[in-house]
């Protein structure tokens, strides 16, 4: 797991193996590193040089022998922040290019957990109240446990309010979702539960299917229609349902 995470932030497989080995054994010679990391000596030289350039390792010479020692792992966070800073520097220009090509109405299909991340990013980018029909609390799916807290902090910081109409089962099966802040919610009667959900925000209408209380499908798929006219129509449907479902509960 650590090795794959290191590769995700830009280390090669050999660099990740050698850095993990250095953290485990401390200062080491090139020969020792080659043996302990099970990496060919020639490749160790190349990987050590790159780790030094990235600020993850340092070289020492003792009695003519070259040693390598690890730099504290907190340097990994610096690397991520540096990448983020470089992206932020070019983001305005990239956004301009993207927005030139955006049409006023379109349909998009998002797939997988990465697609779900795009959906969350859309909510923050649109920055308007979100209306949920047939909500299932599938945001509590275990695969989302690392991304949701950061998203929700940003949502609250932006003042994005939620209005949920949950399926009846959520009340007993996933009560933790009711703790969301800036949220009003009601429940459908039991006979109206289904395996689909509809979210509306700004000019977006997002439809999920195959969803259950607290759980996304193995391969989530969501259909997104971007149209202010369609979104306004769905909001009217939402308002009609909301008015006929009794008193709302509120979490500030």
TrEMBL record:
Superkingdom per UniProt: Archaea
Domain Transcription regulator TrmB N-terminal span(s) in chain numbering: 6-73
Classification via InterPro entries: TrmB-like, Tscrpt_reg_TrmB_N, WH-like_DNA-bd_sf, WH_DNA-bd_sf
Pfam families xref list: TrmB (PF01978)
Protein name (Swiss-Prot/TrEMBL): Transcription regulator TrmB N-terminal domain-containing protein
Species this chain originates from: Candidatus Iainarchaeum sp
Organism phylogeny: Archaea, Candidatus Iainarchaeota, Candidatus Iainarchaeia, Candidatus Iainarchaeales, Candidatus Iainarchaeaceae
